[in-house]
Design a protein that fits this description.
The complex is a heterodimer of chains A (364) and B (163). Chain A is of the alpha+beta class and 364 residues long. Chain A is built from 15 helices and six strands. Classes of the chains: A alpha+beta (364), B alpha+beta (163).
């Protein structure tokens, strides 16, 4: 335990990925601030009508002060995105946002609160060392910084999963499937209107199905809270978590929470860059094009993409893993999807297919 | 870019800071049940419940008895000088759940959260209709369906308006 604490206190690593996460947080903060602006012009200011402050009423801002604060929030979010004074801007965004949440608990939403907590935490990470607009690209060694705040953000995500999963587990209505069942029953008419066959909705509305989905949701949240931290389960947990959040995004209104969680997942990537390599035959236009495509979508800088004549096994494009093993074809593609955010959803199915094919190949 | 920043904490600072942060977060999560709307507790999708709010006004009849008069959120009443004025629940309450009267609406964050908010809303509106010389209190009869199986009614009443 002490060694774990010591490691957390002193661990350093490349700040490239946390800087990318900073940009995404900036975009989400901007979206959130713009939504506040739009709401302000579409409806009465909430401070002028019924509201429930957690702070003394005297410090709830007037409409004009609120407008000024939200405009400042937009400016701060822009600074976070471009990377200028990004860390103080993140901290100021978090403080301002939490203050406004405290001014009216009717406006409280878990996803907005979570975004502010992550902004708060990432402000303490060296997240201004890459993705800086008009900044000179930092040398690799200049990007190295302490990882403690990034690790704390990971723990914060775990706390959210634990809080949500445990509260559902302790609630008999949730465990038994009544909450999910009722949601499904109430969404039946809407789903049928949108073209879902009635037979499918009948199946989904069965108590046994709702009970199974409830247990799966609880197990998922508790699993993610732990499995994201274990090297042996991390990759699958990230994939399962992405599927979980995408499903929730498609079926419920959760504002930004799904995208926020997926952005925070990037912090679970190893800080070191380009530990894997893509080698390709520079004389083959198809291989050159594919290598360029991988490079474009390699947002986490996982691959060192380099031309190489006479790649082992005569392949046109291969993926060299951290352990030095080379993969091509379907297995190689599966490895690329595992490290490429936009293709990540395909990683587990492709890895399964590739491994089944490899076993069959061995047998034959 | 790698210049030191005032947000770069030393070993002792980061340890104390992180300890305090985690204690606060865990404390907020563990005490969420004590807050009716579970704020800061990350209780996602905690219920699938609906509430239907029927609003009424407590007014005094000429014989002195208090009776409840139903309202759709808009009403007229005389002020202290006898002038008839218009009043509206919706001028004061814009929250999409609490502003929906007479039909079921999803109780976001759970029934307890919405009943807590509704009680506060009744008190707020009752204290902001100063020109209404007839309404003695606002009442709400709430038809609750919790998680699709538990149906019950709850009666809420505001603190008295100025008489």
């Amino acid at each position: 335990m002490m060694s774990l604490l010591r490691r957390w206190q002193t661990e350093t690593g490349d700040a490239y990925v946390v800087s990318l996460v900073r940009v995404i947080l900036g975009i989400l903060l901007l979206v959130s601030a713009v939504r506040e602006l739009v709401e302000l012009f579409q409806a009465p200011y909430r401070g002028d009508v019924f509201h429930l402050p957690l702070v003394p009423e005297a410090i709830v801002p007037s409409r004009a002060a609120f407008l000024a604060l939200v405009i400042v929030e937009c400016a701060l979010a822009a600074l976070v995105i471009v990377g200028w004074l990004a860390r103080p801007a993140l901290l100021a965004s978090a403080i301002s946002g939490i203050y406004l949440l405290l001014c009216d608990r009717l406006a409280y939403h878990n996803n907005r609160y979570a975004l502010l907590l992550f902004a708060w935490l990432i402000a303490f990470a060296p997240c201004d060392r890459a993705f800086v607009w008009r900044g000179r690209g930092a040398a690799d060694s200049d990007r190295i910084g302490p990882l403690w705040a990034q690790r704390l953000a990971q723990v914060q995500l775990s706390i959210i999963y634990l809080a949500s999963g445990c509260s559902k587990l302790l609630d008999p209505d949730w465990r038994g499937g009544l909450v999910v069942g009722d949601r499904l029953v109430r969404s039946t008419a809407l789903a049928i209107d949108r073209g879902v066959p009635p037979a499918i909705m009948e199946l989904l509305a069965r108590p046994a199905f709702a009970s199974g989905v409830s247990k799966l949701a609880i197990a998922t949240e508790l699993f993610l809270a732990v499995a994201l931290f274990l090297p042996s389960t991390r990759s699958f947990a990230l994939w399962w978590g992405v599927m979980f959040h995408v499903t929730i995004e498609l079926t419920s209104k959760v504002e930004l929470f799904g995208w926020l969680s997926i952005a925070i997942y990037a912090l679970f990537a190893r800080p070191a860059l380009r530990e894997r390599a893509i080698v390709y035959d520079p004389d083959d236009p198809w291989a050159v094009w594919l290598a360029r495509l991988v490079h474009w979508f390699d947002w986490l800088a996982r691959f060192d993409v380099r031309p190489q004549k006479n790649v082992a096994g005569g392949v046109l494009l291969g993926v060299i893993e951290r352990d030095g093993s080379l993969a091509s074809g379907l297995r190689g593609f599966a490895r690329i999807t595992r490290a490429t955010p936009i293709l990540f959803a395909l990683s587990v199915p492709l890895s399964l297919v590739a491994s089944v094919r490899a076993r069959r190949g061995l047998r034959s | 870019m790698a210049a030191s920043n005032w947000l770069d904490l030393g070993i002792r600072g980061r340890t104390l800071w992180a300890g305090a942060y985690l204690l606060a977060q865990i404390g907020l999560v563990l005490t969420a049940s004590e807050r009716p709307d579970r704020v800061f507790g990350f209780r996602m999708f905690n219920e699938s419940s609906t509430i239907s709010i029927s609003l009424g006004r407590r007014v005094r009849r000429p014989d002195g008895h208090l009776v409840t008069v139903p309202t759709d959120g808009y009403w007229q009443a005389r002020d202290a000088r006898g002038i008839v004025r218009d009043f509206s629940w919706h001028d004061h309450v814009t929250d999409p759940i609490l502003a929906t009267l007479g039909r079921p609406v999803h109780a976001s964050y759970g029934v307890e959260a919405q009943l807590f908010r509704l009680q506060k809303a009744l008190d707020y509106v009752a204290s902001h209709v100063g020109y209404d010389g007839e309404t003695r209190a606002l009442v709400a009869d709430v038809d609750v369906l919790r998680n699709g199986h538990d149906r019950f009614q709850r009666h809420l009443e505001s603190s008295p308006t100025r008489e």
